[in-house]
Amino acid sequence: MSQDNAALDPAATADSQATISSEIQAAHASYADAVAAGGARETQPRVDFAPYRSSLLRHPTKSLHHADPETIELFSPAFGERDVHPLEADLTIQHHGEPIGERIVVAGRVLDGDGRPVAGQLVEVWQANAAGRYVHKRDQHPAPIDPNFTGVGRALTGPNGEYRFTTIKPAPYPWKNHHNAWRPAHIHFSLFGTDFTQRMITQMYFPGDPLFALDPIYQSITDLKARERLVASYDHELTSHEWSTGYRWDIVLTGSNRTWMENEEEDH
Ligand SMILES: [Fe+2]
Prior knowledge:
The protein has helices spanning about 5-10, 15-35, 70, 225-230; strands at about 105-110, 120-125, 150-155, 160-170, 175, 180-185, 185-190, 200-205, 235, 245-250, 250. The protein is of the alpha+beta class. Fe (ii) ion binds near residues 186, 188 and 268.
């Protein structure tokens, strides 16, 4: 891009990936020093994480207000087990044709901090398509929408806390945090407890993604092991002959191995 074009393109004046990456490395180095000096390990993302530029003015600065679930239930809707059909866990059959892309199964279990299964848990997912494009209007980057793929599904966990989705492997996509910023491929997960005050939101990633090191959302979790808990494993037992590949990902709701959860709903 020429200097003339750079003056017209706001993204060209934004921070470079090198700047973002060096800030990530500095934050992680100071975290490692703190842990080495006896500091506590972190399991959750830092809300005030400078490389994640677009969150700096909108992250919570006060502790969250805890609402009384009993009161909330007087006003908000509730759902029952019969409201979720098993076919809603298959994101590849929602239209007349087959979606484009690599068909995958994503399966795992929802567990509490003691490893006990959480049954009857509503698990919702949303994701970009095989070209890295979401269907919503705010996503306008030049990648094709797939008329046969919406990218939204849901399921209830079984008696052993198990869930299973059939979908299309999402692609990385650009976002506006800094110049030439790309998100690693991911699937958004939402979990409801037994009422609407217990919603938790997180993201699942795919093993070996070359964008991990560059992504300030993924790297806002300063602890390596906590980050790695967001990455699914390839599982050949979940792979079906001439049909789909399989990934396994367990979600831990509480305790020291807790899966990272967003404080607020994110749309990246
Ligand atoms: Fe996303």
